[in-house]
């Protein structure tokens, strides 16, 4: 064994012992230094050439500065011109004793005198320079370094408190940064590949890199501000997250402000986080009061409850998402998505979901709600998990069927650099074990809604953001190993079959236009892929797969066109959310039903509050699905806002017959009234020519690409009422269609997620069956023919889209009905009419007109 190896092993033993000490004690050791030993000069240089500057006592306003931020600072989603919620209330804080703070962050060279093994992490950071700020250091390691240095020199080294850090950072300023309202280029334009300390100018007290470079660990557990005045505050006595301050390289300037608070688990090692030290005795201030438990943890009964299974067909729908008002955080009314649900031992249901402004934003947190077994209504949502200014992306709940609820959680600054975190509860989610990182930051760590116990007793969970892989534990969650093989696509749901194989169905990676199925014979080491019989899912959608207590397999997903049979023996096509059951281990799925009310229509809100009508023909079109089955055999299927409960008996029953095609609308002549907007007309040089005669449009794209005109924002069409129905007509003649694709397009949007589009070619009329969200250029391979063999070239023809109140549209050519379709889902925006043409088209458009009083047929 070499001397170097001995030194490295000794350092590793020392570090492990120090970390264990901190884990048990929860903080730095008090130092025996006498007042006479404490430095008195303005600056102090220690034995490791670390320079410290003396910070004198004083008071300051801690938290948001009360000045509205400059527009360019709060320019991102989830960034607010009055700072984050946890920077409020701003309050006066006093620092009563002098202390010394490191002029620079601790560097690689300085830290590795304590822990030589850390050198291997330099390759993972942005720079391996000796003078770069050390990163990939946990809070425990940073604190252990401080204690090592204290023992070495006999001075009270430690991490700064959060109040000391902000006081020193501000250096007497009351603005967003110690440089003023904004950061000069020397700070925010720093090379993202450099962590060299001292490259930016110091603040007024001689401290470098307080804004950017590396986030810095501070002493405090994260908790809310609560007092109007605090002297030497030290934060809560305990918590889940340790605070970091200052922001890091490549981070938006919003997060580099003096008042901004970040944080993560104390064991987290990250390429963005380092630290600096102070010399000073620990304040003897008592910890701040603990926050009250979240609503989902209050008044929870611990007695076991098991409802009786319904003897008849059962179906129920209710809204589970009940958000408090406001969009400032940590809960947000608008974007709530990525649901997970589990049953609790006491009979309650527990659900969690993302709540945010933007799914990639640092404001994203996890909300939670409880449906108590003796209640018909879900509790109002409360915070379930919220690492400050971290993207808490991905989560899953799972009840092991005995007494333990598992919470798998993603932890990241960005959605693709996720760490997998685990905590458990044995008291119906009233309290949780300390969260621990079971897989460090990297790809394939983001948990999704698919956890199960394998036949060999192992716990299996599915993770993506990277290849979709399995994480498997054979010791009840104490250790985890990742599978070698990749599931095709992402957001996959996985189940174990009776013969031990695993079957997965997920999103993307489609095979022959169908949802991909992945099958593994070796617990995920390798997978075989083939096309399933289901429609693929798109943006905003995720399927679920579950083995029912009765032994059958349950699957829920979204379809664009699926044939189902009704109780009268008739067959019809449905679109939207459906459920299916297999009794032969996934080889066939004979029971399929649209998950909706089997009666009069009902309006509900889906993802982001998008409206959708539930009726015998339509159902939800968006949502990351979540599912569990309770001991009473009820299946609980959650979308982004709805909670559907039903049993296997309901799934096996045929839906009642319904009148799908009411009488066609009455004939009406439409007067031309859609104004063709000048500001949307490209110049002739761009191959779109507008004739001056009689207001007709001469469309000529034979030497250019696709073009589109949209009705003006103040056009009367914006008053369209989808509940009443309406009609839109275009009169046109096709003179050339050389693209072998689209011709002249007519696209309508009703402002309530309903999209209707046709394209008229030289010899055909086609309907747009496009993807759920849709695309701007309407690719021709997503159109289906309504009629072929037409002659649309010799003279003008009129084409009318008559939209009924149930969003069924009749498509006419002159007086002939050529097709009946249902709306295609599109994300919300204002109502509009689009006219367009593909490249290679020459046509004359006489007019576009509409009638908002209701659907109508041409005379």
Task: Describe this protein with a few key phrases.
paralog of FGE (formylglycine-generating enzyme); six-stranded antiparallel beta sheet; Jelly Rolls; mainly beta; 859 residues; single chain; 6 helices; disordered N terminus; seven-stranded antiparallel beta sheet; globular
Give an overview in words.
The chain is built from six helices and 53 strands. It is mainly beta and 859 residues long. Among the domains are: 3-22 and 44-279, paralog of FGE (formylglycine-generating enzyme) (Alpha-Beta Complex), CATH 3.90.1580.10; 678-851, Jelly Rolls (Sandwich). It starts with a helix and ends in an 8-residue tail after the last strand.
The unreliable regions are 1-26, 675-693
Instruction: Calculate the terminal CA-CA distance, rounded to whole Å.
Output: 97 Å
Biggest sheet details: 7 strands, antiparallel
CATH class identity of the domain at 3-22 and 44-279: Alpha Beta
CATH architecture of the domain at 3-22 and 44-279: Alpha-Beta Complex
β-strand amount = 25-35%
Sum up the overall morphology in one term. globular
- Determine the CATH superfamily of the domain at 3-22 and 44-279: paralog of FGE (formylglycine-generating enzyme)
Q: Quote the average pLDDT.
A: 88
Number of helices: 6
Which fold name is given in CATH as the topology of the domain at 3-22 and 44-279?
Answer: paralog of FGE (formylglycine-generating enzyme)
Can you count the beta strands?
Answer: 53
Rounded to an integer, what's the Rg over CA atoms?
A: 32 Å
Structural class assignment: mainly beta
- The helix fraction, in percent, is under 10%
